[in-house]
UniProtKB/TrEMBL annotation:
It comes from Flagellimonas abyssi. Transmembrane segments: none annotated. PANTHER family: METAL TRANSPORT SYSTEM ATP-BINDING PROTEIN TM_0124-RELATED (PTHR42734). Keywords: ATP-binding, Nucleotide-binding, Transport. This is ATP-binding cassette domain-containing protein. SMART domains: AAA. The keyword Transport applies. GO terms for molecular function: ATP binding. Residues 190-416 form the ABC transporter domain.
Length: 416
């Protein structure tokens, strides 16, 4: 008999999610979830999409897209998840396990998927493994928390929400000043004027007007494929699409002979993928000092003033006692904080944070956002924060939103 129950399991960055999922799918005994030993379940996750994508690419076996000419890898994240969900529902399992179902989706697609999952949960058992409280479906009946491999069950929904409610976080101390300030005598750091961009004849950006001034705090939003990455790559100098357009970066018009290296010297950039480049045995102290030299690792003897600066940052992050620990041994959340300090150590005139909280649990995300807010208030660095998710604690001054249309995305500016 199929029961209409909905289970929420709040995961953290230390949770052994894979083991729990496999135990449920293989009908192994799980305390508090023993009824699943008699049921057949299927998995809705990013890893499943990657598995089917691998089958399609390696063996030309189309499973999720058998009724479509389009390859799975060419679909957007939203289209891929829709294809997987339809495939799972066609098999009519007793229960479906959802692992962070809204990751990598824009706000509108998240809302559409949540509505669909709510409908599914009304007549099928749903097990939600989510790292964010906002992702839990309404009318959820059973609540758990996964700490490492330990699964804790709550006696009531009220007990769950009370224990896991998010609170404002503050860092003690002030942002350490740079050793050598980068002087920029400009009010406008970035200026797009009627900038349009096309790829293979398809217009992606349509007459974008966006001016970023010194000291401002921006959030850049827009659905998948709206052109956010294209905008960023033109600012950082990683795209040639700005040539021939009215685009000015740090007072120099694109294509006027500007040096990409000089450009990058004025920009701090962080995206979680950068973290994967640091695979060696780098101490936390050396990680932050390496930001002064723009190097992957530290290959010069640090000066006393560089060490002192690094330790001031570690003190701010409550990591001073771990300065000789290896970066690779940190939790995911603490790695992000150290990488943020590394990006900010020179106080770059422009700091770009590209999906910096992706994959973090609520606690780690709140901590990271608190650090961003503090940097915005206590430094002269201009911040551009890019995110699919609306971080509730984030405090930007302005929002630049890309809205797709048939002729490419339009840009709109709003003040908070």
């Amino acid at each position: 008999m199929k029961l209409s129950k909905s289970y929420a399991i709040l995961t953290q960055n230390n949770s052994n999610t894979d083991q729990l999922v496999q135990n449920l799918l293989r009908n192994h005994a799980v305390p508090g979830l023993t009824e699943f030993q008699q049921l057949d379940g299927l998995l809705f996750s990013r890893s499943e999409i990657n598995r089917y994508m691998d089958e399609e690419e390696r063996h030309d076996i189309k499973i999720l897209t058998k009724d479509s000419e389009q390859a799975l890898k060419t679909m957007s994240s939203g289209e891929q998840k829709k294809a997987l969900l339809n495939y799972l529902l066609d098999q009519d399992p007793d229960f479906i396990i959802l692992v962070n179902p809204y990751d990598n989706l824009d706000v509108a697609t998240q809302a559409q998927l949540k509505e669909q999952l709510q409908d599914i949960a009304s007549n099928k058992i749903v097990v939600q493994l989510v790292s964010r409280l906002d992702d839990i479906l309404p009318d959820t009946t059973h609540f758990f928390k996964l700490d490492g491999e330990s699964l804790h069950q709550y006696e009531s929904p009220d007990a769950f929400w009370e224990e896991n409610k998010t609170e404002s976080i503050n860092f003690n101390g002030t942002i350490p000043p740079p050793l050598s300030p980068i002087s920029i005598d400009l009010k406008e750091l970035v200026s797009f004027k009627k900038v349009s961009v096309s790829f293979d004849g398809r217009k992606v950006l349509d007459e974008i007007d966006w001016t970023i001034k010194k000291g401002e705090f921006w959030q850049l939003i827009g659905p998948n494929g709206s052109g956010k990455s294209t905008l960023l790559s033109m600012i950082t100098g990683d795209s040639h699409k700005g040539y021939g357009e009215d685009l000015t970066i740090f007072g120099q018009k694109k294509g006027s002979g500007e040096s990409v290296w000089d450009l990058k010297q004025k920009i701090g950039y962080y995206t979680p993928a950068i973290t994967n480049k640091f695979r060696g045995y780098h101490t936390l102290e050396n990680m932050i000092i390496s930001g002064l030299h723009d190097s992957i690792g530290l290959y010069v003897l640090p000066t006393d003033s560089e060490k002192q600066l690094a330790n001031e940052w570690l003190h701010l992050l409550n990591l001073k006692n771990r300065k000789n620990d290896h970066f690779r041994d940190l939790s995911v959340g603490n790695k992000r904080l150290v990488m943020m300090a590394r990006a900010m150590v020179k106080h770059p005139p422009l700091l770009i944070l590209d999906e910096p909280t992706a994959g973090l649990d609520d606690s780690s995300a709140n901590l990271f956002v608190a650090l961003v807010n503090k940097i915005a208030k206590e430094s002269d660095s201009t911040i551009v924060f890019v995110s699919h998710r609306k971080e509730p604690q984030l405090d930007p001054e302005y929002i630049f939103e890309l809205r797709p249309s048939e002729n490419g995305s339009k840009g709109t500016t709003s003040s908070i």
